[in-house]
Amino acid sequence: MASLVYNIIEVVVSVTVGLLTGSAALVSWGLDSTVEATSAATLIWRLKGEKDGAGKRTVLHRKKVALYVVACAFWIVVAAILYEAVSAFISQKAPGFNWWGIAILGASLVVNPFLAWGKYRYGKRLDAPALKYDAKDTMICQYQTIVVLAGIGLTQWMGWWWADPVAALLIVPYVAWEAFEATKDARSVDPEEADATADA
């Protein structure tokens, strides 16, 4: 729940500031946080079913739906990042500076390791690989945060307008790979297996 709340704050602040300042990197980073928020929400929904004693078929169905939701969110983010980056390259306009953007990025550098540790510990205790995988995603977000901060820094202090959209594009390979993996995992889940196992 803490991860969901914090990611929503990340999305609101970073996307708003990114749009106001024209920072493709900040908007892209914020959009990627929507995937983390979506992942956290669907994971809570899925784990709640298991906790409430749902049958195996229901658990598998929720797992499949959750993976497809996350996969769709990833693909939408890929398209949005590419649009923002290409638009920035076409305009060749350096983004403005805003301390709110720097503040949310700085806060993420501090908060994300704690969230990742909590997810991993909870996932290990529940024997839930999905939670441990989510913890890994949170730590990878650290890389993205550093990339975006570097892009903003180079743009503001070196005058390299292109550093911002380049920073945004550096996020794309990771998001696209996660979209592919989530789609593949969703396809591999078959709720009918539960019935087959029960009949065996």
UniProtKB/TrEMBL annotation:
Superkingdom of source: Bacteria
Keywords: Cytoplasmic vesicle, Endosome, Membrane, Synapse, Transmembrane, Transmembrane helix, Zinc
Domain Cation efflux protein transmembrane: 2-188
Cell compartments where the protein resides: Cytoplasmic vesicle, Secretory vesicle, Synaptic vesicle membrane; Early endosome membrane
GO molecular function: monoatomic cation transmembrane transporter activity
Bilayer topology term: Multi-pass membrane protein
Transmembrane parts of this sequence: 6-29, 65-91, 97-117, 138-154
GO cellular component terms listed in the entry, alphabetical order: cytoplasmic vesicle; membrane
Pfam families in alphabetical order: Cation_efflux
Entry keyword annotation includes Transmembrane: yes
Keyword Disulfide bond: no
Full protein name: Cation efflux protein transmembrane domain-containing protein
Organism this protein belongs to: Paracoccus shanxieyensis
